[in-house]
Structure formats: C-alpha cells, structure tokens
Amino acid sequence: MQPNGDDVARIRREIEALKDTKASIEHKIAVLEAQLQQHQSDDVCNGSCPPISAVDANLANGLSADSVYRYSRHLLLPSFGVEAQSNLLKSSILVVGAGGLGSPALLYLAACGVGRLGIVDHDMVELNNMHRQVIHTEAYIGQPKVKSAAAACCAINSTIQIVEHKEALRTSNALEILSQYDIIIDATDNAPSRYMISDCCVVLGKPLVSGAALGLEGQLTVYNYKGGPCYRCLFPTPPPTTACQRCSDSGVLGVVPGIIGCLQALEAIKIASAVGEPLSGRMLLFDALSARIRIVKIRGRSLQCEVCGENTTFNQQYFKDFDYEKFTQSPLSTSPPKLNLLAADSRITSKEYKERIANGEAHVLVDVRPEHHYRIVSIPNSLNIPLASLEARLPEVSSALKEEQEHNGTVSGANLYVICRRGNDSQRAVQCLHKMGFDLAKDIVGGLESWAHDVDPNFPMY
Amino acid sequence: MQLTLEFGGGLELLCESVKVHNVNIDLPKGADKLTMRYLLSWVRTDLIKERPEMFMKGESVRPGVLVLVNDCDWELTGQLDTTLEEKDVVVFISTLHGG
Ligand SMILES: [Zn+2]
C-alpha cells in the first residue's frame, strides 16, 4: 500500500525527532568519553607530564634505562646516536598551531623525546578539522585543541613535559611564551601570524621552522638560523589580502599539511639534536598532484631587512607595539571577515526569506558561489551563477525573472535574491546587480551558514 | 628562445590552471639577450589570462611571489636584470599561508 502524504510527513517528522535525540545522545557520549580520557591521562601524567626522567649516573649522557630502551632505534643510528638523543631530551620546542601542520609535528616531537614540548592554540576541535588534524579524535569535538593535542602527546610519551598555552598568540604574550623555548615551529594558517612569529623569533634569536600548505601544495623552510634569512628578508612587503587564501575557503587535501608537518618535525629534530643540515637558505616546494618536490636556493639575510638587517631599530618594545593586522590588512584569527557593504533595505535575513517562500512570493534566488561549492549542496530551485561570471551572465538573470513573473502571473514582477556561503560575496553581487539596473536585488544576510543555523538545521554545512 | 615557465601556489589559476608552460620567446627587436624584465612583460601580455594585478606590481612581481631561475632565487641572479639562457626553467610561486 502506498502511504499517503500525511503518512510521509509524519514519518519524516518522526525521523527528524529521532535524529535529534540520536545527536543529543551522541554528544553526551562524546563529552563523557572525553572526560574519561582526561581522567585516565591525569592518572598517568598527573596533570602535566613529569619532567625528563631522572639521571642515571651509570649511563652515558644521562639517559635512564627506560630512555635507552624507548629511544633504542635512535641510539642505534650511527649518525644520530646517544649524543643527539641526549641533546633532544634537553631541548624545548614550541609548536604554534595544533591544526593540519601542528598535528603530525606534535605527534612526532612527543614520540621522539623532545624534553619540553609547548603547544599554542586557542581554537576548539571541529568535525571539519578531522580530515587533516590527525592528532584530535572525535571525542574531543568542541573542546580546546590544546587540551586534545596535549592528551594525545602524553598518551604517546608520558616521560616528556608538555606545556599547554590555551590562548591566541599576540604581540602582548608572544615574547613571554616564545622565550621559554629553544626552537619555534610556525604551524599557523594566516599571514599576520607568520610575520609576527618570525619577527618575535628574530628579536629573541630563536630558529624558526616554517611550514605552509594549501590545496595540493606545501612549502617549508627554516628562518633565522645561524645568520640565515628571516621571513621578512624574503617577503618584506605583505601580499595583497586577495592573494592570501585560507584552507576554509580554498580547501586542502588532508595529507598535504600532514607531509609538511612531518618535515617540520624533522627540521626541528635536526636543529635540536645538532645533526645534519637544516633547511636554511633553501626552501622546499611540494606539489602533491605531480608528485614533485623541488628544493630551491633562496636569498640570504638581507642587510636592508627592517627586522634583522644592519641598521634595524626593531626591538622587543617595537615588536610589542607593532600592529600585524594593520600591516597585512588581515585578521590574526582565521575567522572569515564579515562585510557590511549594503544598506539595510537591500538585505533580508534567512528567516525572512523562508517566510517569503512559504507565502509563495514570485522570486528568483541566485547562488553566486563557485560551481564546485554549489555541487556540494544548494537550496532547491536556486540558480547558480558564480560571482566571477555574474556580469557576463546577467541575461540569464533577466530571463529567469521574466519566466518567474509569467509563471506566477504577478504584475509587480518577481523579486531577486542573492545568496552565497557566508554572506560576503552575495553583497558584492548585489552591488554589481544594482549597478547593472537590478535595483531591487537583495542579499540574504549570513548566506547558507545562517540558513543552516536559523532555518534548516539539517542543511549540510561545509 | 625555449624556456620552461612554471606557476605554483595558486598563480597557475591566472593562466587557466596550467602549471607548466613550455614556451618559445623571440628576442625583443634589436636586443641580443633576454632579461627577466622582458620575460615578465611577455608573461603579462601573452600568458596571463586574468587578474594581472595578482601577478605583477609595477614592472616586477607583486609582493609574496618568489621568482626562481633554475631553482635559484632571482635575488641572487640579478632580479629584473637576470639574463636568461636557452632551456632555462623559471618558476613563479606564490607564498602560502595555510595550515
Ligand atoms: Zn630579515
């Protein structure tokens, strides 16, 4: 027997209600599991991990019997051996960012026996991090990344000291935090942080292992190492903000930052143990698609460098007062910008839009996201015209409006709404539409994000 | 003159997402050598399909772009005055910030 429309609606409602209950139970389980894990790791590590194991006078280089056994495969390496391992155990390394780069870097640094390992991050673990930030587990979703990363490091090696810095790195705290470590790893994801960390390393005289990844490419180099160049020697002027893409906008294949993060751990281990040739004055360029790694020679320290050059006046006080967000024209946090380009009467909320659909209003909804975004998910009956091609495809907008008007038989004409992912591009699109004579075009405030938040909680966000 | 030009770090998006370009460039009239200065203007007019401001600023590359001639930073070879030879490989790469 075919169920009728009422049955279908009832079943859907029931499924939705059960899904909600399921999600709430799963959340409770996750929180409890995380608490349990925290208790267990507290038992092992006693809050923070104990310092490096006690010196055993009978063993060379102060390695305890347990350390000899734990690191035996390092000790067996003729080019590494007891001395390098001992150096490592006495060293301290700070990883700024427990994300895609920081995850593998931290795992390897904890495992290899860095004496003191610091982690800086102010973010929480999110589901859309999991594909690349492999240090975190589902149980920690919604909890601080620093806490999650520290627990994972501790679970691998409870004999090292792990320090949690649950705060965003700023000019006000950077000197104090970085000065406690021998080597700094930049595993952040934005331009102002990269300038800030490099400048701070110059001021404090610390080597900096810098990695970056986006899409299917990665880059790696060591700055400020034994007279080598700093970040500003290479990039004295910040790039235009339009050239600074974020993983949250452009995407990134999870394993790519994984590879670069592993290489960052390797470079830090080499410096800490005083083994091999660090990647200073050279840069590694990784192209995952063509499976090519290119190592290029880069310029040395620039005498004209504003921060590390000959006549520099850049010091700790200068650093503290420097405005990195202004310098790079972009925010230190990774949260996307919220533009406000339009007058209030050219905008409607997602809830208002929902009401207008319900009232059967004649309208056309143009979705200006790139086509590959549109293919992930979209609002039914929307018309995809990416912002970049909007001007060229205005005739499509006109004919869609005309068709909608004829279809609905309205005299006043169909309304025109524009949506995008977060509500920035939709405003740019409406500005363009206004200029081209579509005076009544309105954007939907907050885009699909607000639609998912305020109207349809089951709408998939990405 | 036969050259291999490579674009990376997102710059390939300016030339139809093609990363490697094998090109044949005629020497400018009356000149006996090809410099990076000339190559940049050639790339701008003959290769870049969109948003040239994402590639160049003035007569040089925009901030945040590294130029490598045969795997060596062009700061070390003479920047705009670098002379190119047959079969040279020139890489333009935009610095990444993501992680
Ligand atoms: Zn410098």
From TrEMBL, chain A:
Reactions it catalyzes: [molybdopterin-synthase sulfur-carrier protein]-C-terminal Gly-Gly + ATP + H(+) = [molybdopterin-synthase sulfur-carrier protein]-C-terminal Gly-Gly-AMP + diphosphate; [molybdopterin-synthase sulfur-carrier protein]-C-terminal Gly-Gly-AMP + S-sulfanyl-L-cysteinyl-[cysteine desulfurase] + AH2 = [molybdopterin-synthase sulfur-carrier protein]-C-terminal-Gly-aminoethanethioate + L-cysteinyl-[cysteine desulfurase] + A + AMP + 2 H(+)
Subcellular location: Cytoplasm, Cytosol
Organism name: Theobroma cacao (Cacao)
Key word Transmembrane present: no
Binding site for Zn(2+): 230, 233, 305, 308
Protein's recorded name: Adenylyltransferase and sulfurtransferase MOCS3
Gene Ontology terms: cellular component: cytoplasm; cytosol
Enzyme's top EC category: transferase
Residues given in the record as ATP binding sites: 100, 121, 128-132, 145, 189-190
Coiled-coil ranges from the UniProt annotation: 8-42
Chief site of localization: cytoplasm
EC number: 2.7.7.80, 2.8.1.11
Residues of the active site: 247 (glycyl thioester intermediate), 420 (cysteine persulfide intermediate)
PROSITE patterns in the cross-refs: RHODANESE_3 (PS50206)
Cofactor binding note from Swiss-Prot or TrEMBL: Binds 1 zinc ion per subunit.
Domain (Rhodanese) ranges: 359-460
BP terms from Gene Ontology: Mo-molybdopterin cofactor biosynthetic process; tRNA wobble position uridine thiolation
InterPro entries hit by this protein: MOCS3/Uba4, Rhodanese-like_dom, Rhodanese-like_dom_sf, ThiF/MoeB/HesA, ThiF_NAD_FAD-bd, Ubiquitin-activating_enz
Protein's pathway: Cofactor biosynthesis; molybdopterin biosynthesis; tRNA modification; 5-methoxycarbonylmethyl-2-thiouridine-tRNA biosynthesis
Cofactors required: Zn(2+)
Family named by the database record: In the N-terminal section; belongs to the HesA/MoeB/ThiF family. UBA4 subfamily.
Record function comment: Plays a central role in 2-thiolation of mcm(5)S(2)U at tRNA wobble positions of cytosolic tRNA(Lys), tRNA(Glu) and tRNA(Gln). Also essential during biosynthesis of the molybdenum cofactor. Acts by mediating the C-terminal thiocarboxylation of sulfur carriers URM1 and MOCS2A. Its N-terminus first activates URM1 and MOCS2A as acyl-adenylates (-COAMP), then the persulfide sulfur on the catalytic cysteine is transferred to URM1 and MOCS2A to form thiocarboxylation (-COSH) of their C-terminus.
UniProt-listed CDD domains: ThiF_MoeB_HesA_family
Gene Ontology MF terms in the entry: ATP binding; metal ion binding; molybdopterin-synthase adenylyltransferase activity; molybdopterin-synthase sulfurtransferase activity; nucleotidyltransferase activity; thiosulfate-cyanide sulfurtransferase activity; URM1 activating enzyme activity
Keyword tags: ATP-binding, Coiled coil, Cytoplasm, Metal-binding, Molybdenum cofactor biosynthesis, Multifunctional enzyme, Nucleotide-binding, Transferase, tRNA processing, Zinc
SMART domains the record matches: RHOD
Automatic annotation (TrEMBL), chain B:
PANTHER family: RURM1 PROTEIN
Its biological purpose: Acts as a sulfur carrier required for 2-thiolation of mcm(5)S(2)U at tRNA wobble positions of cytosolic tRNA(Lys), tRNA(Glu) and tRNA(Gln). Serves as sulfur donor in tRNA 2-thiolation reaction by being thiocarboxylated (-COSH) at its C-terminus by MOCS3. The sulfur is then transferred to tRNA to form 2-thiolation of mcm(5)S(2)U. Also acts as a ubiquitin-like protein (UBL) that is covalently conjugated via an isopeptide bond to lysine residues of target proteins.
Coiled coil start-end: none
Subcellular location: Cytoplasm
GO biological process: protein urmylation; tRNA thio-modification; tRNA wobble uridine modification
Sites of the Glycyl lysine isopeptide (Gly-Lys) (interchain with K-? in acceptor proteins) crosslink: 99
Matches recorded under HAMAP family: Urm1
GO molecular function annotations of the record: protein tag activity
Designated name of the protein: Ubiquitin-related modifier 1 homolog
Residues with the 1-thioglycine modification: 99
SUPFAM superfamilies given in the database record: MoaD/ThiS
